Amino acid sequence: MLTLYILAGFATVLSLLAFVISREANRWITVAGLGLAGLFCAVGWGETLEAFGGLYRLDTLARGLTLVAILGGLWILLLGPAKKFEFPLLVLYAVAGMHIMASSPNLVVLVIALEVFSLPLYVLATWQRDEKGFEAGLKYFLLGALGAAIFLYGIALYFGATGSFMAGATGSGPLYLAGLFLVMAAFAFKVAMVPFQWWSPDVYQGSPTVVTLFMATAVKAAVFAAMLRIFTPEGLEVWGIGMAALIALSTLFGNLGALSQTEAKRLFAYSSIANAGYIGLGLFGPTGQATIPFYLLTYGLATGLIFAVLSMLSNQDVPLERLRGLWYRKPLLGGAMGLGILSVLGLPPLAGFWAKYLVFQEAARAGFYGLVVLALVTSAIGAYYYLKTFFLIFSKPAPVQEAEDREAEAALAQFGSSEAPGIPVAAAPMGLTQGLMAPATGASLPVRGVLLVVMVLLLLFSVLPGLGLRFLGAGLSPV
């Protein structure tokens, strides 16, 4: 309960104090609030607390995926100090909504939570005042409103078929089936599963890089927590075929779409689509409430490393050629991004490999062997663009990359902030293009420390995957 009170309390109080305190103080108080919420979330791990007549349930699933959401919030605040005080507040409200979504089995509360974290994300997506930023915000808002409408309609049908708003209620007939499929479609939009993924590449590319990091990690944690409560293995014969189709399309489209990309944020947007499909495999098995949080935790750490490095290169577009020779130009950034890429790829024995193995095993237990084979084949396809990017990082740099580094550092010195200045290209210093202006942050000592800590955690879960799995499975019924 204290986690909910801390998030809501800090958000409310800082909404008033932000007018009278400095922007840096506001940011660091927000960071402290998220850290405190994460601490109390871990206290009493394995226990289940209920409140408000069962509308709020803080169990191991909610605790684990709330920590992933808090991790995403800390990533964005530590990497991108904002010029405007609203930036940390929007992140705090979004994390509060994600916590509520991860902690409620009631569909009406889930609708409220969905809007609580979606509205701040619509604003954050359009934080860059340029053409791509406006396009990202508009697409995300319009399609997000459509997703919310589909969710509401699905809930109405679900209630009509079951007489209950609680997740896991038993029902039958076409009304129940239609309700579940509409709810599934709404969640598929939020995690960018095919065919509801069309917003993802443009929004990821047009948003500030640190905001893209937040979307790629925290949002998936909140939505999959709700999916785990609604789509239980007991009802697999009802929703299984629909989910299998979403997973098959997502893994195929995500990996094939990434092959032709030349911009890093757009490439990893397609990678995110594919990974949403892989995570969905965990819904089929009896221990998905442990394996999916483990996947999301390792995916959040690895993807966080990737987008953190991208944010230090540019807060806008990052052409893949910009990564050439990164290891030689900036060894820490090159090493961090290389580790993140190999983990997302699923190269043994890194944590990403164990995460994929566990969710593949869940689908195999349920008898979806064809889906597992397809997931393995598409993972091999994905290895091509992951390794291509990896070898680009460790290839020899060209003079143009070193010149771009100097220009980007000059832009950071002049505009250093979490948002790009959005000024016309003609007015950019030293002839900088929009794609190189104002990286989100420099490689300062605190930022380097964050990168090193995350790299150590990722390597720890690689060596001891059972430690993380047992931690996230504490208190769950043994299978």
Brief rundown of the structure:
The protein is 71% helix and 1% strand. By secondary structure, it is mainly alpha-helical. The radius of gyration is 21 Å and the shape is globular.
Give your account of this protein's structure:
Helix 5 runs antiparallel to helix 9. Strands 1-2 form a two-stranded antiparallel sheet. By secondary structure, it is mainly alpha-helical.
Low-confidence stretches: 417-438
For the largest beta-sheet, the strand count, sense and barrel status come to: 2 strands, antiparallel
Tell me the overall shape: globular
Distance N terminus to C terminus?
Answer: 28 Å
Give the strand tally. Answer: 2
How many helical elements?
Answer: 19
- Arithmetic mean pLDDT: 85
Write down the Rg: 21 Å
Identify the strand order in the major beta sheet. Answer: 1-2
Strand and helix layout:
Elements (H helix, E strand, L loop, with lengths): L1 H16 L5 H20 L6 E3 L4 E3 L1 H20 L6 H17 L4 H19 L5 H32 L10 H18 L9 H7 L2 H22 L5 H23 L5 H17 L7 H26 L12 H4 L1 H15 L5 H15 L3 H25 L5 H17 L29 H19 L1 H8 L7
Antiparallel strand pairs: 1-2
Helix pairs in contact: 1-2, 1-4, 2-3, 2-4, 3-4, 3-9, 3-12, 4-5, 4-9, 5-6, 5-9, 6-7, 6-8, 7-10, 8-11, 9-11, 9-12, 10-11, 10-16, 11-12, 12-14, 12-15, 12-18, 12-19, 14-16, 14-18, 15-16, 15-18, 18-19
